[in-house]
Specification:
about 450 residues, alpha+beta, D-Maltodextrin-Binding Protein, domain 2, globular, single chain
């Protein structure tokens, strides 16, 4: 009995202990997240290959060089792979430099040139056709006159830069001392005032010209002549450009104006137009780019430099000649795209309300040029003093210099024959007749 009780007791104790034991642990599922790093893709931008661009202009004076170089330095800083070699010559050397360099196979990549040379450059295959975006920029941001000035054979060939016209520049102090309150408006007034303002010594030598002529330079002879011709109702070329018309009665009257001034010792080719700043003459027909020189060298002070419209003849109203310059790229350049990139940068404002680098350069203290880009004309208007404003106004009545094949040859021919008349080598009528005959031969040959 006792043993039975003991067994039951032990069973009860065992059951009690079992009930007090902790419950078996619930199995846990542990999720492990595996972190997989993506392989990083490294994009290596290739370093642009070195590019050397040679740029040629006629802005050869030391002051002009100093004004341009910082702009080219800025471009090279923005484009470290580009090196720019900047070459300059004087205007009278520019055409020779371009043509001889090309013949030798060492043309610059970029050149700044006179638009009269455009037909011959195009015919010779010298110029690269601008990219579409350059043409679109030019058509959108320049006047139609400027676009036309850089267009030949139906194509735009480069960025228009300088606009230049001719006006009568005179010494206000000299005119006032002679009793004149305003400059001449007609040829008769021009002759009267020039003869009164001229000074002749006891030997009959002209020591001060009332009106200065500009021999020895094709533009100096031909551009004032054409300005006076158009101001007398004459024409340089026929409308179809098949022949010249400067030997017409209006042209004969224009050359006779010069002959009258020479005969009466109111002018003398021996007195240089460069003597004007030093009181060597009272009046001269000259272009606006001369402003910088007059500002720094005019003896009577720049405030005494006056500008007036071209005096008109008996058969016309005041007019003038306008010519332009442009940047183009050589067709043989190994870096044509990079060359156009530089040209476009030079001629485009960095942002709205700013001038383009070229606009800033042309209207700075070195030059008196009018920029072609319309936004430059607006942004830089505060730089246009009375001198430049008179030239800007003249563009409204200006005749563009005709752009024809053989234009430079015709210009040189006309210069030679006008000078032959001035120096008494030919009668004026014969000189113009001979010039016209040769010019028409050139036109026929180039057609």
């Amino acid at each position: 009995m006792r043993s039975r009780v003991l067994i039951v007791s032990l069973v009860l104790v065992a059951a009690l202990l079992a009930s007090c034991a902790p419950a078996p642990a619930t199995p846990q599922i542990v999720k492990q997240t595996q972190i997989v790093e993506k392989e990083k893709q490294v994009v290596v931008t290739p370093t642009p290959a070195p590019v050397k661009l040679v740029m040629l202009t006629h802005w050869g004076e030391e002051a002009a060089l100093k004004a341009m170089q910082p702009k080219l330095d800025e471009y090279m800083k923005l484009h470290p792979n580009v090196t720019i070699e900047y070459q300059t010559v004087t205007f009278d050397q520019l055409l020779t430099k371009i043509t001889t360099a090309r013949a030798a196979g060492i043309s610059p990549d970029i050149y700044h040139f006179y638009n009269l040379w455009l037909p011959d450059f195009v015919a010779g295959g010298m110029l690269a056709v601008p990219p579409d975006e350059v043409v679109a920029d030019i058509r959108a941001n320049y006047s139609q006159g400027s676009v036309d000035a850089v267009t030949y054979a139906g194509k735009v060939w480069g960025y228009p830069t300088e606009i230049n016209t001719y006006q009568l520049i005179y010494n206000k102090k000299m005119l006032a001392e002679a009793g004149y309150t305003k400059p001449p408006e007609t040829w008769d007034e021009l002759k009267e005032m020039a003869c009164k303002l001229a000074q002749v010594d006891s030997t009959g030598k002209v020591t001060r010209a009332g009106f200065l002529v500009i021999p020895g330079w094709d533009s100096g002879v031909v551009h004032p002549f054409l300005s006076l011709l158009w101001s007398n109702g004459g024409q340089f070329l026929a409308d179809d450009r098949s022949k010249v018309l400067f030997d017409s009665p209006a042209g004969q009257q224009t050359l006779q104006l010069y002959m009258d001034l020479l005969k009466n010792k109111c002018t003398d080719p021996a007195i240089s137009w460069g003597d004007f700043p030093n009181n060597g003459g009272a009046m001269v027909i000259m272009a606006n780019w001369w402003r910088g020189t007059l500002q720094s060298t005019f003896k009577d002070g720049y405030e005494n430099v006056g500008v007036a419209p071209i005096p008109h003849g008996p058969n016309g109203q005041s007019s003038t000649l306008q010519y332009n310059w442009l940047f183009g790229v050589d067709n043989g350049s190994k870096h044509r795209q990079e060359a156009w990139d530089l040209v476009r940068w030079l001629n485009t404002p960095a942002k709205e309300g700013e001038a383009s680098p070229i606009g800033d350069y042309l209207t700075g203290p070195v030059f008196g040029a009018m920029p072609s880009r319309l936004s430059d004309q607006k942004v830089l208007a505060n730089r246009f003093d009375a001198f430049l404003q008179a030239f800007i106004a003249s563009t409204k009545v200006a005749h563009p210099e005709p752009i024809v094949a053989g234009g430079q040859e015709i210009k040189t021919t006309l210069q030679t024959e006008i000078e032959a008349a001035w120096y008494g080598k030919k009668p004026p009528e014969q000189a113009l007749k001979d010039a016209a005959e040769e010019a028409n031969r050139i036109l026929a040959e180039k057609r």
